[in-house]
Amino acid sequence: MRFLTSYFATIPYRDVLITGSQRMQERPIGILVEALRTMGAEISYQKNEGFAPILIKGKDIKSDFIVLEANVSSQYITSLMLIAPKLKNGLKIRLRGNITSMPYLKMTATLLKRLGVNCLFGKNTIEIAPKRSIDSVSLTVESDWSSASYFYSVLSMSPLGSSVFMTSFREYSLQGDSIIKDLYSDLGVDTTFQNGGILIEKNRHPSNKARHYNFVETPDIAQTFVVSCFGLGVACQIEGLHTLKIKETDRLLALENELKKLGADISVTDHSLTLNPASFQKDKLVFIDTYKDHRMAMAFSPLGIIRPIGINDPSVVSKSYPDFWEDLKTLNFEF
Fold first, then answer.
1. For 178-206, what is each residue's pLDDT tens digit?
2. pTM higher than 0.85, yes or no?
3. Is residue 335 part of a domain?
4. Neighbour-count burial for 145-181, b at 16+ CB within 10 Å, e otherwise
5. Are residues 152 and 290 in the same domain?
6. How far is the C-alpha of 148 from the C-alpha of 144, rounded, in Å?
7. 82-105 per-position pLDDT tens digit
8. Are residues 263 and 200 in the same domain?
9. Same domain for 122 and 149?
10. What string of H, E and C letters represents the secondary structure of 105-159?
11. 3-state DSSP of 242-293
């Protein structure tokens, strides 16, 4: 929705109504809409101020400068970056404060450059020059590291010597979520790059020391990692989670609710999470509510390695990984 909002705002003489599911209508879009309005776009709310549905009356946008708070969702900024080459004078984006999810912005900038777009990424500014047509370029799309995180989680709770090979991953990845190879090394899972992919192996048990992490640049893998720590009995304190509250669901609250069902000692704030080791019944079947959030379903499923687990509304994974359950079956998971 965020990318389409910016795109249709730049298409002259075309009116577009954008809406979505009930949850999509609860996710804020006001920051992006106000930025586009400042640039000259004509967008109106059809129901609630700051939320979809929205009516967009497309037009030529001539403004070439916008200021945004740097701690907003990276999707707002990426959305503006993607329309910048289409604007007559390009676009300069100034970001105030500390940037959230920096790797996603750098990935967008790098891909724009590969398409022949002049993009300068400074400390708190992004300058993108206009370009009438995009160069013809062949790009190989790397596999998704956030999707790989679920299999890292499976391995972390598997017996020593267990391994999985996954194709089409690069050692020097543009994806910020590639940090999982380092995070899970701390939990006993090692990564070897070979034959155009990764071999991940469970080589040791994690130590009992408490862990402290900051996920401000990689919030999409937070749920998976927290569930792994719970399954392993590892204490962790995680900061930088403020954007989780405006995802498909309030992911911080959802994590707290569902982990407590399993006996977790967990507490959350608006931006952080603390998990302490806790005993739990490994033979009791507990069903996890997914809150219409694909990542909730996939993050909790690896617990099936160590205890019976049920997932309500399993089809929710279709948003990002339709074959997830079939791929889990290849690792001898039974449903």
1. 999 999 999 999 999 999 999 999 999 99
2. no
3. no
4. bbbbbbbbbbbbbbeeebebebeebbeebbbbbbbbb
5. yes
6. 6
7. 999 999 999 999 999 888 778 889
8. yes
9. no
10. HHHHHHHHHHCCCCEEECCCEEEECCCCCCCCCCCCCCCCHHHHHHHHHHHHCCC
11. HHHHHCCCCHHHHHHHHHHHCCCEEEECCCCEEEECCCCCCCCCEEECCCCC
Tokens 């996954």: give the residue. 166
Phi-psi region of 320 (alpha: psi -120 to 50; beta: other; left: phi over 0): alpha
278 and 304: one domain? yes
| Crossing angle between the packed helical segments 222-232 and 145-156, to the nearest 10 degrees | 0
Rg (CA), the chain: 21
Helix (H) or strand (E) holding 296: helix 294-300
Q: How far is it between the farthest Cα atoms of the chain? A: 63
d(C-alpha 243, C-alpha 258), whole Å? 19
Burial of residue 184, with CB atoms counted within 10 A of its CB: 0-12 exposed, 13-18 middle, 19 or more buried: buried
Banded pLDDT at 6 (limits 50, 70, 90): very high
Q: How many domains does the chain have?
A: 2
- Residues serving a catalytic function are 220
Rounded to whole angstroms, what are the CA distances from 70 to 84, 159, 240? 18, 43, 14
Task: Please give the residue range of the domain that contains residue 311.
Answer: 145-329
